[in-house]
Specification:
2 domains; globular; Growth Hormone, Chain: A; mainly alpha
Length: 412
């Protein structure tokens, strides 16, 4: 006998909500992942802390975020009300206030621990999990639109933080940015994800406990996606963090390097527009295209400095697609019911890998050379291409098996 339960009608996405979510992502990324790009130097000059200490704090934040994300995904999946995403701005603001007050390194580090919690609560993985639960089959298109807006995060957030820094110093910049987080993030998420109680209908529906089949996390496809996402995170972090070092090693002047690096953000945005407007590709096919673009982009750094522009553009396009695929590919493979939990589980190892990547890459460059670093990353990118083809084959086999099972059931 079926029980009658409260069943939420699937809301329809809107451009205004997607733009608002993209703006929230810009603000959240700017207050965490990108803020040290502007503030690191004045922090080191003011405090005397080393490069390793300041940037190591960001690595700690990434580690915290990666460790928390599986639990965050489970909470988003199980709870009717979104208890995570709207409050990320409050937590991140608290972390920035601690940074601004820190006279001792341990207090500075504790501020980044708090920011790491906020990163797990509010950045892409938690957002994608919330979108998947809210929009169902329409999630992929929403993810593309939101990430298109969010691709402007480096440009906009660096401009805001630089302006604040030039006028108020790094400590007051942390305080003012904290206020920005407090007054924007919560209202935006409440606007984009209104209270579920506003649109409920009673429909016969089996009671769900919000559990996820355990065999999903032991399946071949899960481990393939986990491996591909982890390699992608390493490639992105390693190249972005050391891009200036790579170009300097090619004998390119700093003025020219600035103009080359400027192509990274726009290339990510352009490829997301193309994906949104023109592409009808299945996510796994898009993953293969992204993997090839990433490999070719990195490979071009080995050749004449004149092709460095093209290398940055292709790498940016591959990375732009990869950000979308973090949300769309798991949805296509595992479906909506398990999506929030799967997103959280898939995010842990990539974030842990991101945290240690700068140190490993620095070791490769210092002990060997930039060329050895690039060759190593080309090999990783090639492995990722192979993984994408294996994922496509595995998905095709699962579909074929499901079709045979359906035919057998119809006959019997």
């Amino acid at each position: 006998m079926e029980e009658v339960v409260m069943h939420i009608e699937t809301p329809k996405p809107s451009i205004s909500k997607n733009v608002a979510l993209g703006i929230a992502q810009i603000i959240l990324w700017g207050g965490s992942y990108f803020i040290l790009s502007v503030l690191a130097d004045p922090i080191m000059k003011d405090t005397g802390w080393s490069y390793a200490m300041v940037y190591g704090s960001l690595s700690i934040a990434l580690l915290i975020s990666g460790l928390l994300l599986p639990k965050i995904g489970s909470i988003i999946n199980e709870k009717e009300k979104n208890l995570i995403l709207p409050y990320a701005g409050f937590v991140m603001a608290g972390g920035l206030v601690i940074l601004g007050l820190s006279e001792h390194f341990l207090l500075f580090l504790s501020g980044w621990v708090v920011i790491g919690v906020a990163m797990g609560m509010g950045l892409y993985d938690a957002l994608f999990a919330s979108l998947g639960k809210n929009y169902g089959k329409a999630t992929s298109k929403v993810i593309v639109q939101v990430t298109l807006i969010a691709s402007l995060a480096p440009t906009i957030s660096w401009s805001i933080v630089s302006l604040l820094l030039s006028n108020y110093g790094w400590r007051n910049t942390c305080f003012i940015y904290a206020i920005l987080l407090l007054v924007t993030v919560y209202p935006i998420h409440r606007f984009a994800f209104p209270a579920a109680a506003n649109s409920v209908t009673r429909t016969p529906h089996p009671v769900s406990k919000g559990t996820v089949p355990a065999d999903i996390f032991h399946s071949k496809l899960f481990y393939l996606l986990l491996s591909s996402f982890t390699i992608g995170a390493v490639l992105t972090t390693g190249i972005v963090v050391h891009l200036i070092d790579i170009l300097l090693a090619k004998g390119i002047t700093m003025a020219t390097i600035i103009s080359i690096v400027a192509f990274l953000g726009p290339s990510q945005a352009v490829v997301r527009v193309i994906e949104l407007v023109f592409s009808k590709n299945a996510p796994v096919r898009t993953a293969i295209i992204a993997a090839f673009a990433t490999l070719i982009g990195i490979l071009l750094f080995l050749f004449d400095p004149n092709v460095a522009y093209l290398g940055v553009i292709l790498f940016g396009m591959g990375n732009g697609l990869r950000s979308i695929l973090r949300g769309t590919l798991p949805l296509a493979v595992f479906g909506q019911e398990s999506y929030a939990v799967v997103i959280g589980k898939l995010a842990r190892f990539p974030l842990l890998a991101q945290a240690i990547t700068p140190f490993i890459c620095g070791f490769l460059i210092q002990q060997f050379s930039v060329s050895v670093f690039i060759y190593t990353f080309c090999l990783l990118a090639l492995v990722n291409i192979i993984l994408c083809f294996i994922i496509r084959q595995e998905i095709a086999q699962q579909k074929e098996y499901a079709t045979k099972e359906l035919k057998i059931n119809l006959v019997t």
